[in-house]
Amino acid sequence: MSKDAPSENAENTTGATGKTGPEPSRRFCVAPMMDWTTPQYRYLARLLSRHTLLYTEMVTTGALIHGDTERFLHHNPAEYPLALQLGGSDAGELAHCARLAEQFGFSEVNLNVGCPSDRVQNNMIGACLMGHPDKVAEAVSAMIAATSLPVTVKHRIGINGRESWDDLCEFVDKVSAAGCRTFIVHARIAVLEGLSPKENRDVPPLKYDWVYRLKQKYPHLEIIINGGIKTFEECHEHLEHTDGVMLGREAYHNPWLLAGVDSEFFGDEAPTASRHDALRAMYPFIESELERGVFLSHISRHLLGLFHGIPGGRQFRRYISENAHKSGAGLEVIQTALEKVREPAQPVLTEATASA
Ligand SMILES: Cc1cc2nc3c(=O)[nH]c(=O)nc-3n(C[C@H](O)[C@H](O)[C@H](O)COP(=O)(O)O)c2cc1C
């Protein structure tokens, strides 16, 4: 592991012993995103920020219980602090999976009450659960009893037909009475019929003021705001009213943003001085992933945003897109792509904030 690789002894590391570390800070989080926040993306994210709380993609209880548990929970201790997001509604199954989360060393277990996809609705997973606050409360209570990890909930401000302020408060009242003290709130409703999951991330209007009101009404709860946040300036504004911010798409498409997080929000030094250094620090990891049979394209697609918006970035992306899928493609594809981007003579610590 290179000297720049994320530390396996990071402060919140829980390790294979299952011993839990301190509660992770949720001041700045990267959102759970299916197919995007894979172990490979998370490794890159951790090279750029030591303090950001990372979330896995959602894993359903059915997949964990009946599928290849090891594969679904696979991660690198270097990624800590790392929260496992679960999809499900059966209290017993969720409790079982919360126990697994602890055994596998995760820092937090999170329940998805925000995903609007039809596929998950049919199994009572995701945003449809906002219509069943008692069921969520029962599940959360069982999860809390099963693990010493923090149990958190990520939800919407409502769903169509249950979108009043009182509906939202009923949800938070019941779930907090069951013991949940951290609510990650995507500040728009989900429309369960007629909008695709993608449209459900853009079409219903954002109502940040509702999330601020939640914090005012429930000052003892930790309220994290999510949805449409792109810049550090916006983050600071939200942090005046809430306890933390969660960024999804911007953190994925422009990962270099994360390189400014430790200094901007945690008073710590940035772990890496340049995009080039960060990518080179990925090399040992890329090689070990290739050795365990991961295709280069499954790693490289998460690197495409690293040179977002800077000269040579397009050539970098094009070279990877044209070559990473070829049979036998290895680390040399990434090395050659990197040569397409001129290395700055000086460290570029301020770039993350400048482009943010
Ligand atoms: C590709 C993609 C996959 C997503 N998968 C999940 C998921 O597995 N679980 C979840 O709670 N939210 C998921 N989301 C929603 C995000 O976590 C987040 O709530 C949403 O993108 C709004 O934040 P943003 O505007 O910062 O992207 C996904 C979003 C995207 C773009």
TrEMBL record:
<dbReference type="InterPro" id="IPR035587">
    <property type="entry name" value="DUS-like_FMN-bd"/>
</dbReference>
<feature type="binding site">
    <location>
        <begin position="32"/>
        <end position="34"/>
    </location>
    <ligand>
        <name>FMN</name>
    </ligand>
</feature>
<feature type="binding site">
    <location>
        <position position="154"/>
    </location>
    <ligand>
        <name>FMN</name>
    </ligand>
</feature>
<dbReference type="GO" id="GO:0000049">
    <property type="term" value="F:tRNA binding"/>
</dbReference>
<dbReference type="GO" id="GO:0010181">
    <property type="term" value="F:FMN binding"/>
</dbReference>
<dbReference type="GO" id="GO:0050660">
    <property type="term" value="F:flavin adenine dinucleotide binding"/>
</dbReference>
<feature type="site" description="Interacts with tRNA">
    <location>
        <position position="112"/>
    </location>
</feature>
<dbReference type="InterPro" id="IPR004653">
    <property type="entry name" value="DusA"/>
</dbReference>
<keyword id="KW-0521">NADP</keyword>
<comment type="similarity">
    <text>Belongs to the dus family.</text>
</comment>
<keyword id="KW-0288">FMN</keyword>
<feature type="binding site">
    <location>
        <position position="186"/>
    </location>
    <ligand>
        <name>FMN</name>
    </ligand>
</feature>
<comment type="similarity">
    <text>Belongs to the Dus family. DusA subfamily.</text>
</comment>
<feature type="site" description="Interacts with tRNA; defines subfamily-specific binding signature">
    <location>
        <position position="317"/>
    </location>
</feature>
<feature type="active site" description="Proton donor">
    <location>
        <position position="115"/>
    </location>
</feature>
<keyword id="KW-0694">RNA-binding</keyword>
<dbReference type="InterPro" id="IPR013785">
    <property type="entry name" value="Aldolase_TIM"/>
</dbReference>
<dbReference type="GO" id="GO:0102264">
    <property type="term" value="F:tRNA-dihydrouridine20 synthase activity"/>
</dbReference>
<feature type="binding site">
    <location>
        <position position="85"/>
    </location>
    <ligand>
        <name>FMN</name>
    </ligand>
</feature>
<comment type="function">
    <text>Catalyzes the synthesis of 5,6-dihydrouridine (D), a modified base found in the D-loop of most tRNAs, via the reduction of the C5-C6 double bond in target uridines. Specifically modifies U20 and U20a in tRNAs.</text>
</comment>
<feature type="site" description="Interacts with tRNA">
    <location>
        <position position="201"/>
    </location>
</feature>
<feature type="binding site">
    <location>
        <begin position="226"/>
        <end position="228"/>
    </location>
    <ligand>
        <name>FMN</name>
    </ligand>
</feature>
<feature type="region of interest" description="Disordered">
    <location>
        <begin position="1"/>
        <end position="25"/>
    </location>
</feature>
<protein>
    <recommendedName>
        <fullName>tRNA-dihydrouridine(20/20a) synthase</fullName>
        <ecNumber>1.3.1.91</ecNumber>
    </recommendedName>
</protein>
<dbReference type="Pfam" id="PF01207">
    <property type="entry name" value="Dus"/>
</dbReference>
<keyword id="KW-0819">tRNA processing</keyword>
<keyword id="KW-0560">Oxidoreductase</keyword>
<keyword id="KW-0285">Flavoprotein</keyword>
<feature type="site" description="Interacts with tRNA; defines subfamily-specific binding signature">
    <location>
        <position position="198"/>
    </location>
</feature>
<keyword id="KW-0820">tRNA-binding</keyword>
<dbReference type="GO" id="GO:0102266">
    <property type="term" value="F:tRNA-dihydrouridine20a synthase activity"/>
</dbReference>
<feature type="site" description="Interacts with tRNA; defines subfamily-specific binding signature">
    <location>
        <position position="314"/>
    </location>
</feature>
<feature type="domain" description="DUS-like FMN-binding">
    <location>
        <begin position="30"/>
        <end position="338"/>
    </location>
</feature>
<dbReference type="InterPro" id="IPR001269">
    <property type="entry name" value="DUS_fam"/>
</dbReference>
<keyword id="KW-0547">Nucleotide-binding</keyword>
<dbReference type="InterPro" id="IPR018517">
    <property type="entry name" value="tRNA_hU_synthase_CS"/>
</dbReference>
<feature type="binding site">
    <location>
        <begin position="248"/>
        <end position="249"/>
    </location>
    <ligand>
        <name>FMN</name>
    </ligand>
</feature>
